[in-house]
UniProtKB/TrEMBL annotation:
SMART domains in the record: DUF1899, DUF1900, WD40
Pfam families per UniProt: DUF1899, WD40, WD40_4
Keywords carried by this UniProt record: Coiled coil, Repeat, WD repeat
Lineage: Eukaryota, Metazoa, Chordata, Craniata, Vertebrata
Encoding gene (name): CORO1C
Annotated region described as Disordered, given as residue ranges: 1-22
Gene Ontology terms: biological process: actin filament organization; neural crest cell migration
Protein name stated in the entry: Coronin
Biased composition regions of type Basic and acidic residues, renumbered to the chain: 13-22
Residue ranges of WD repeats: 98-140, 148-190, 192-233
Domain DUF1899: 25-89
Length: 496
């Protein structure tokens, strides 16, 4: 606290001193100053999981109020686990997986409007969308609801639209971003000429009208995907050669993490309307792990998790200098291989929980709970403003036609009770009936229009035959994997 006569004493102080004092006072008055993190007990972890070793800087974990999904090591293709949140403890080696990809899975993302639908991108150049049964998997899942093919190289990024139903973005090592209507299985927007080098990450803004990207060419771009134009860009947002990240904040500003020329880790805040200079730029340390940012728009807190670090640092973003305020660090002994972040509606409001992370170790997943200590047992409405709920604000067609809508908000006053999710239905359009699009950029797959003749009918029959054979081989691989696991367990018991 300031002393009573500090006002008088402060008359003659320099502006710089007063600025520093303002910075300290802003931080000290924050209700998140005392946020503290705690790892759960061992029996509440998910144990004996072979977390993927693939060299890719995604988070390897995706969480929603029902399930935790983790990318794992898999022989003969790519797989990820989907566990109901309550299924803690040791996970049996023969536990069913989602294993339809023919190459390693690089990224996964739960649909924000359906807690049983998850998308995955893989080294096999495809995106697959899966429907998980309400109570989790009892058998391995090899058949996705839809396979989205359009990338020519591996797909390292998948991200659902925040407010429009069934709109999914994917980015690949072909430097292209494709936006799909999952409900019809169509690629409707292809941004294939905007990036000259690898795309590190893509982030939607709050209402899904813009995206921002960070790329290996050291540029941060703000893009209007429907107009297919770059709205703003910054060259050398961070001068170091190691990977950057860029995310949109609720107020429209862009937050980035990267490296300086001297390989120091940096964070920066930018206004897309004027990207000449950052609003704020902070240097942190000289560790070489990529900083993955996780953002809570309700509290304006950003959590930074470095790959290979054993800590989570968190900062509050305000509109007063210095704009990015350091709050605290959660430290542990083990380095993190990846990190999952629970949406706000999946938190326990009775315990004043404001964030929950799912930290991936080499062989386990450990939940970490962030809370704000409060004496009262009443609902803390200042910690829990209305938050984005599971209802989509727009249909896919409305968004593609140019409409925008903010997320549909819900109150957490009485906790969040997951409702019944409707099944994802994909109605593939008959390409032969569709009219040619006026917009050349959107006309992704130029399919010659033929009348169905005998040869094409025979080809379709042959194609069906091949697909059936592929499915049967995939099923056999999954069954063999489960059989191998069981035999390994028997061997281990005999050896013990």
């Amino acid at each position: 606290m300031c002393s009573p006569n500090s006002g008088a004493a402060g008359e003659g102080r320099s502006q710089k001193e007063r600025g520093a004092d303002t910075m300290r006072r802003v931080v000290r008055q924050s209700k998140f100053r005392h946020v503290f993190g705690q790892a759960v007990k061992n029996d509440q972890c998910y144990d004996d999981i072979r977390v993927s070793r693939v060299t890719w800087d995604s988070s390897f974990c995706a969480v929603n109020p029902r399930f935790v999904a983790i990318i794992i090591e898999a022989s003969g293709g790519g797989a990820f686990l989907v566990l109901p949140l309550h299924k803690t403890g040791r996970i049996d080696k023969s536990y069913p997986t989602v294993c339809g990809h023919t190459g390693p899975v690089l990224d996964i993302d739960w649909c924000p409007h359906n807690d049983q639908v998850i998308a995955s991108g893989s080294e096999d150049c495809t995106v697959m969308v899966w429907q998980i049964p309400e109570n989790g998997l009892t058998l391995s899942l090899t058949e996705p609801v839809v396979i989205l093919e359009g990338h020519s190289k591996r797909v390292g990024i998948v991200a659902w639209h925040p407010t429009a139903r069934n709109v999914l973005l994917s980015a690949g090592c072909d430097n292209a971003i494709i936006i799909w209507n999952v409900g019809t299985g169509e690629a409707l927007i292809n941004l294939d000429d905007m990036h000259s080098d690898m795309i590190y990450n893509v982030s939607w803004n709050r209402n899904g009208s813009l995206i921002c990207t960070a790329s290996k060419d050291k540029k941060v771009r703000v893009i209007d995907p429907r107009k297919q134009e770059i709205v703003a860009e910054k060259e050398k947002a961070h001068e170091g050669a190691r990977p950057m990240r860029a995310i949109f904040l609720a107020d429209g500003n862009v937050f980035t993490t990267g490296f300086s020329r001297m390989s120091e880790r940096q964070l920066a805040l930018w206004n897309p309307k004027n990207m000449q200079e950052p609003i704020a730029l902070h240097e942190m340390d000289t560790s070489n792990g990529v900083l993955l940012p996780f953002y809570d728009p309700d509290t304006s807190i950003i959590y930074l998790c470095g790959k290979g670090d054993s800590s989570i640092r968190y900062f509050e973003i305000t509109d007063e200098s210095p704009y990015v305020h350091y709050l605290n660090t959660f430290s542990s002994k083990e380095p993190q291989r990846g990190m999952g972040y629970m949406p706000k509606r999946g938190l326990d409001v009775n315990k004043c929980e404001i964030a929950r992370f799912f930290k991936l170790h080499e062989r386990k997943c450990e939940p970490i709970i962030m809370t704000v200590p409060r004496k009262s047992d009443l609902f803390q409405d200042d910690l829990y403003p209305d938050t984005a709920g599971p209802e989509a604000a727009l249909e896919a067609e409305e968004w593609f036609e140019g409409k925008n809508a903010d997320p549909v908000l819900i109150s957490l006053k009485h906790g969040y009770i997951p409702g019944k999710n409707r099944d994802l239905k994909v109605v593939k359009k008959n390409i032969l009936d569709s009219k040619p699009t006026a917009n050349k950029k959107c006309d992704l797959i130029n399919i010659p229009k033929k009348t169905p003749d005998t040869a094409s009918v025979q080809n379709e029959a042959k194609l069906d035959e091949i697909l059936k054979e592929i499915k049967s081989i995939k099923d056999t691989i999954c069954n063999q994997d489960e059989r191998i696991s069981k035999l390994e367990q028997q061997m281990a018991k005999i050896a013990a």
